[in-house]
Design a protein that fits this description.
The structure is a single chain. The protein is of the alpha/beta class and 471 residues long. The chain has 18 helices and 13 strands. The protein has a five-stranded parallel beta sheet, with helices on both faces. The longest helix has 22 residues.
Length: 471
């Protein structure tokens, strides 16, 4: 179920669990998300008139622009894709066309809905998978079949006739096999056969790729030849020898696929992509600025903006699952805008991003909070990693302050890469410890204090030439 009924305050509260600071940006995305819920409560005629208020985030790298959008999408289980604006090229140049971002969004939406539907039929799929596995482990004898036409597979329903004559020997074999199968079933359900190897036959899934010519030029779209040929050619199967525990997972997946209606999945996924989809356009500042006529990486900056414009404005993009309208997709753009300004974008595109929010650079206090407060805080991650080696790691308060001060100092002296600097410093601090584990000695509890941090970072921080390459 989609968690659409969260209030803006609840959304901000959820984002606070993972992202430190940036309250203004969180409030903007929370309101944009709630407005979607409000729009869907209106009469259908009015729904079509209300367009999403797209957002452009401005701020240096590593301050949480991408993470806010990603966590927001996970929060409501909405289809979400992150694309780099620099990957697209103007029509006529080699590269990805801008419509591919919508196709990627549809693929994500299909995957989300399919997983939801499969989880609904999981119990039935598990029962069917167990029955198939027992049949593979202890198969029943088959009746002899009369010779059939070798080209019978070309005709649907052309089955080899069975020898229906009552055979006492066959009946006896069947009875014995059923008794054996019951014994196997008891052991199987007790979990005593999980590690036993079994040979199973599965359909080989290798989607055939065909290049087709579309209005935007040559693009690669997955076209399954099996679907095109129907029953003319039987699906290719291959045999694998796997433990029963793994075979059960494979069969459950296959059975769940058979139990769901893919047409219904596709229909809902397209609707969800249109109404709830979020596209995050990163590095949009790299395509801003005056066009450079001639050659080089900046040859189609303005052209890419012109191509993105109709997608953001609202247009229909043809995908292999059907047409998708982009009118109600929420676009969140982001960029550092060091050398360019938002006003350097073409005016038409600027108008399609009415909400602008500036993210703050991170301070020393923010770094301390990032290291300790979020659910996925770096300190918690490293503690969990080293616990697998039998080491109980603890950081003193002064060690965390020292790491935060070092990160802040290096961001001021060199390029400001925001919270990503903490990853580099933490790796350097714990590099020696991570390399030596597991060792002969039982480390047990290890405390990281300020002196430990300074000893690992002192030489690198003082030597500016060296820190440029290491930190």
């Amino acid at each position: 179920m989609l968690n659409e009924e969260l209030t803006p305050q609840q959304i901000v509260s959820e984002l606070d669990r993972f992202i430190v600071g940036q309250l203004e940006a969180k409030r903007c995305v929370a309101v944009a998300l709630r407005n979607r819920y409000r729009r869907r409560q209106l009469p259908e005629e009015l729904q079509e008139e209300i367009m999403p208020k797209n957002i452009i985030m401005i701020g240096p790298t590593g301050v949480g622009k991408t993470e806010i959008a990603r966590r927001l999408a996970r929060l409501v289980n909405a289809p979400f894709v992150k694309v780099e604006a620099t990957k697209f090229t103007e029509v006529g140049y080699v590269g990805r066309d801008v419509e591919s971002m919508v196709r990627d969004l549809v693929e994500t939406s299909i995957r989300i809905v399919q997983n939801e539907r499969m989880s609904e039929v999981q119990e039935k799929a598990a029962i069917n998978a167990e029955d198939r596995l027992i049949e593979v482990i202890s198969p029943l004898p088959q009746r002899r079949k009369k010779s059939a036409n070798p080209l019978g597979f070309l005709f649907a329903g052309a089955q080899a006739p069975e020898d229906n004559a009552e055979d006492p020997a066959f009946v006896e074999r069947m009875q014995l096999a059923r008794e054996e199968q019951e014994k196997v079933k008891v052991r199987f359900l007790q979990g005593k056969m999980e590690d036993q190897q079994v040979e199973i036959e599965i359909e080989e899934r290798r989607p055939q790729m065909m290049e087709i010519f579309t209005g935007q030029g040559m693009e690669e779209m997955g076209i399954n030849l099996q679907d095109m040929l129907g029953n003319l050619v039987p699906p290719k199967k291959k045999k694998r020898k796997v433990p029963i525990s793994e075979a059960r997972k494979i069969f459950e997946q296959e059975e769940a696929q058979r139990l769901i209606d893919m047409d219904a999945v596709t229909s809902e996924a397209l609707a969800r992509a249109e109404q709830l989809g979020i596209i995050f356009l990163d590095e949009i500042d790299k395509i801003a600025g005056k066009d450079y006529h001639g050659s080089g990486p900046d040859v189609s900056r303005e052209g890419v903006q012109r191509d993105i414009l109709p997608i953001v404005e609202g247009s229909t993009v043809v995908t292999k699952y059907g047409p998708v309208k982009t009118d109600h997709i929420l676009f969140i753009a982001a960029g550092a805008f060091h050398t360019a300004k938002p006003s350097d974008l073409i005016p038409e595109l600027q108008g399609r991003f009415p909400i602008r929010v500036e993210l703050d650079s991170l301070t020393e206090e923010d770094f301390v909070r990032i290291l300790t407060e979020p659910k996925n805080a770096l300190v918690k991650q490293y503690k969990a990693l080293l616990e697998t080696e039998g080491v109980s790691l603890s950081f003193t308060e002064d060690s965390i302050i020292e790491i935060a001060q070092t990160a802040c100092y290096l961001n001021q002296e060199m390029e400001n890469i925001g919270a990503r600097r903490l990853h580099t410093i933490m790796e350097k601090v714990l590099e020696e410890l991570s390399f030596d584990l597991p060792g002969d000695k039982d480390v047990g509890i290890l405390t990281i204090d300020r002196n430990y941090v300074q000893a690992r970072l002192q030489k690198v921080v003082k030597d500016k030439d060296l820190s440029k390459y290491i930190l």
